[in-house]
Design goal:
single chain; alpha/beta; Glutaconate Coenzyme A-transferase; Aminopeptidase; 3 domains; eight-stranded mixed sheet; seven-stranded parallel sheet; elongated
């Protein structure tokens, strides 16, 4: 095939690459293909040429989105020949950029093609990788279309490396022989991006995110161990669609399993839409000639107005840090640049505009020692001033949830961009919430060993109530294992779970939805106000001494409390005082019975023998409930109040 092509287009070939590189001039801007699509042989040949002829050209600017290969052009010996200018910072360029030996250009990736087309960032040379040309001279950009297509259109000199390992992918990646100036054929395996096997924290994060993702949603997911775990957790979903920047191994697996079928996408139905791929060779083989996958240019895939056309669009990304007010950085740690804006802001803002859209920021609660990857290209170098870790932390581990982003940090996502924040400790919903509510929600999903520090800092910074109660240590750690879904006798589906420190707004709504009669029966007083000082007693819980359960209904992604039950261990240490209240519009549905049954189960596990309670005379439903559930009930009347003793049989 090569001989046939060479006969047909003889001017496209040179016997040696050095004759091609001699056309590069001092000061030229040279674009290098993206990520795993990087033309490795061309880059090596260029560097060898400069190494042999160090004065062949000077002050050239190398430009790319991100490189996964080595970046020897940042070496000191090439200082006079090249200077890297990257739109996203990878491991191989991070040190050079932070030492001012290379440049970083922050930009929404959706804006890159227009930046080049408008000549505000003119390109002189493009080094790209393609499939082998067919008999008509057509080639395909394969796994990297993104801004490569635009670079081909605008660069004065285009040098292509046809490679039989490059798969042909449907979409915008087609170019023809007239689009390139020279061909340098070289077969070599493509670069692979292999993520670490997700750990327990990543697995838990994935499970929480899966709760948020509905069947029929269209998803975008970043790259790294956290997004990989998230994708794996979606295997039980149905009719998912994909509109993303990156197509990863995990997305390919969901397609192969039939989880992703794109049947319910609002735009491009039946099609997985992406702009580049970084993964294993098996994924590249899966893409080869796959008509169900189309790679489009990055100004299409990442355009927020295009993204917003997808109904139930869900953008799932990660970050280095998120602060208690709800702003996050995926770019830098203080003054140190780490990654970049990338496509995260494009997708988060597009998803927020979409009908039924959601934005999810998923990150581990803590950062480990330098160099470990956190997902979506965001590892974390940990040099912070914060309290030493507790028993569960290793030296050098720090909280990713912080009071405020550090000075110099780039705000990738503003306080209005994020709907959900997810760690291995749960889900915080921020959208439409006050600063105080956000802070308490985020503290609730921070690592337990940092929660007290965050509470104290939030008080000092006047983000939360100055008297906010908090139970430190194991006694105050939320017992997630006690969450239990129940169906009542009337078929009402409720989640019974312990109350947590972020529940105060929900409990406020609950108590003020009660009738005066229900409030009177619960508190045995005529009080009609439930101030913060009272409410926080229900949410700052020492789970070793008491239990507060809420019965939660979830409708349209909104939680509401329909019932509350609690017990406090009495001084005799063998019984506990119990109290129940059910919202008026939820009464007679079996919710009270479920709460009492679960409280009894938990009390028995603690070794308690029964409950005590104070019940107003005339509150017959409570007496009937205890008798019906098989307690050995004794009661003694005193001034219109019954002292009830209900022992477990």
């Amino acid at each position: 095939m090569r001989d046939e092509i060479q006969k047909k287009w003889p001017g496209k070939f040179r016997d040696q690459e050095r004759f091609i590189f001699q056309e590069i001039r001092p000061g030229d801007r040279i674009f290098i293909g993206t990520g795993c699509g990087e033309p490795q042989y061309l880059v090596r040949s260029l560097l060898n040429f400069v190494n042999d002829q160090p004065k062949a050209f000077l002050d050239a600017e190398l430009m790319n989105i991100v490189t996964l290969g080595v970046a020897p052009y940042t070496d000191e010996k090439f200082r006079n020949n090249f200077r890297l200018n990257s739109f996203f910072i990878g491991d191989s360029s991070r040190n050079a950029i932070n030492e001012a030996a290379a440049d970083y250009t922050p930009i929404f990736l959706s804006n890159l093609p227009d930046l080049i087309r408008s000549d505000r960032l003119p390109l002189d040379v493009a080094l790209i990788q393609t499939t082998l040309p067919d008999k008509d001279g057509n080639m395909n950009l394969g796994i990297s279309v993104d801004m490569v297509r635009t670079a081909v259109e605008k660069a004065s000199l285009v040098i292509a490396q046809p490679n039989s390992y490059m798969p042909c992918v449907a979409g915008d990646g087609w170019i023809c022989m007239d689009d390139v100036d020279y061909l340098v054929p070289k077969d070599e395996p493509l670069l692979e991006y292999i993520v670490d096997v997700p750990g327990e924290a990543a697995r838990k994060i994935g499970e929480y995110v899966a709760r948020i993702v509905e069947d029929g949603s269209t998803i975008q997911v970043g790259y790294g161990s956290i997004p990989n775990a998230i994708v794996s957790s979606l295997s039980g979903k149905e009719h998912l669609g994909v509109h993303t920047e990156l197509l990863s191994d995990g997305i390919a697996e969901l397609i192969q399993k039939g989880v992703v079928d794109n049947t319910q996408k609002s735009i491009n139905p039946g099609e997985t839409t992406a702009t580049f791929c970084m993964g294993r060779s098996q994924t590249y083989d899966f893409l080869r000639g796959n008509s169900g996958v189309r790679f489009r240019t990055i100004d299409y895939t990442n355009n927020p107005l295009v993204i917003a056309k997808n109904r139930k669009m869900i953008a799932i990304n990660s970050a280095l840090e998120v602060d208690l007010t709800g702003q996050a950085t995926a770019e830098s740690l203080g003054h140190n640049f780490y990654s970049g804006i990338g496509g995260q802001a494009d997708f988060m803002r597009g998803a927020a505009l979409a009908p039924g859209g959601k934005t999810i920021l998923a990150l581990p609660s803590i950062a480990h020692s330098p160099g470990q990857n956190a997902g979506n290209g965001t590892g974390l170098s940990c040099k912070e001033v914060m309290p030493a870790g507790g028993d569960g932390l290793k030296s050098g581990e720090v909280s990713r949830i912080v009071p405020f982003l550090r000075e110099g940090a780039g705000v990738t996502l503003t306080r209005g961009d994020i709907h959900y924040v997810v760690t291995e400790y749960g889900i915080a919903y921020l959208h439409g919430k006050s600063i105080r509510e956000r802070a308490m929600d985020l503290i609730a999903i921070a690592h337990p060993d940092f929660r007290q520090w965050l509470i104290e800092e939030a008080k000092r910074l006047h983000l939360i109530y100055p008297d906010q109660a908090f139970i430190p240590g194991k006694e105050g750690e939320y017992p997630e294992n006690l969450e239990s879904w129940r169906s009542t006798k009337t078929g009402q589906r409720v989640l019974l779970r312990p109350a947590k420190i972020s529940d105060e707004p929900l409990l406020k709504e609950f108590f003020y939805a009660l009738s005066n009669e229900s409030l009177y029966q619960r508190f045995i007083s005529v009080r009609k106000d439930i101030p913060h000082q009272v409410l926080q007693k229900f949410v700052a819980v020492d789970y070793f001494q008491k239990m507060v359960l809420v019965a939660v209904k979830e409708e349209h992604d909104k939680e509401s409390i329909c019932g509350l039950g609690q017990y406090d261990i009495n001084s005799d240490m063998f019984t506990a005082e119990v109290a129940l209240v059910v919202r008026d519009d939820c009464q007679s549905r079996g919710i009270g019975a479920e709460l009492l049954s679960y409280l009894a189960y938990l009390a028995k596990k603690r070794g308690l023998l029964g409950f005590t309670a104070e019940v107003l005379a005339g509150n017959d439903p409570v007496f009937r409930l205890f008798n019906k559930m098989g307690f050995a009930v004794e009661k003694r009347s005193e001034s219109g109040v019954y002292e009830l003793k209900a022992m477990f049989r």
